[in-house]
């Protein structure tokens, strides 16, 4: 069933391609080099052109309100996309900042020397505005 459908699609697509590029080498081989296929390609081209003309005509007949609604919808979609992109950029920047904080904390944890030095380094890190891990943790919840 699926293979029959795919054969039909292949022949139909080939007919459209033939109307635009009859010099492609595939059209020198059967069944694409037959008069039947060439006639089918001509018919498909005419049908597609008529359908496109009909859609264009119907679109022109649409009331201005419908066109405005479609335009507004497209604008809203574009604005939403832009907002999402900016939000993603902000999130990526925050993640990068937090990754640097984790790196710094890891380095501070593995400092050579006494435990007191390590504790002071971690405390100094946590006292900095960028070192507020509570903010980091609450951000990801």
Characterize the structure shown:
The chain has 141 residues and is mainly α. The protein folds into two domains: 61 residues, no CATH class; 60 residues. The chain is 80% helix and 0% strand. It contains five helices and no strands. The chain is elongated and about 90 Å long. The two termini are 49 Å apart. The C terminus is likely disordered.
What keyword list fits this structure?
141 residues; mainly alpha; 5 helices; 0% strand
How do the strands and helices of this protein lay out in sequence?
Layout: H1 2-20, H2 35-61, H3 64-109, H4 115-127, H5 133-140
Radius of gyration: 32 Å
User: Overall mean pLDDT score?
Assistant: 78
- What's the main sheet like? none
* Secondary-structure element string: HHHHH
- Terminal Cα separation, in Å? 49 Å
| Helical coverage, percent range | over 70%
How much β-strand is present in the residues? under 5%
Low-confidence stretches: 133-141
Given the structure, what is the number of helices? 5
Number of strands: 0
The coarse overall form would be elongated
Structural class: mainly alpha
Task: Give a short overview.
With 141 residues, the chain is mostly helical.
């Amino acid at each position: 069933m699926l293979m029959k459908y795919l054969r039909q699609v292949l022949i139909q697509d080939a007919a459209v391609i033939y109307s635009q590029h009859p010099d492609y080498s595939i059209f020198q081989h059967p069944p694409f080099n037959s008069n039947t296929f060439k006639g089918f390609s001509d018919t498909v081209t005419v049908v597609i052109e008529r359908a496109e003309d009909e859609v264009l005509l119907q679109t022109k007949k649409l009331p201005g309100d419908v066109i405005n609604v479609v335009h507004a919808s497209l604008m809203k979609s574009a604005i939403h996309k832009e907002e999402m992109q900016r939000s993603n950029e902000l999130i990526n920047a925050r993640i990068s900042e937090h990754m640097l904080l984790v790196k710094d904390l890891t380095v501070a944890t593995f400092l050579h020397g006494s435990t007191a030095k390590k504790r002071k380094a971690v405390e100094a890190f946590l006292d900095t505005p960028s070192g507020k891990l509570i903010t980091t943790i609450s951000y990801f919840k």
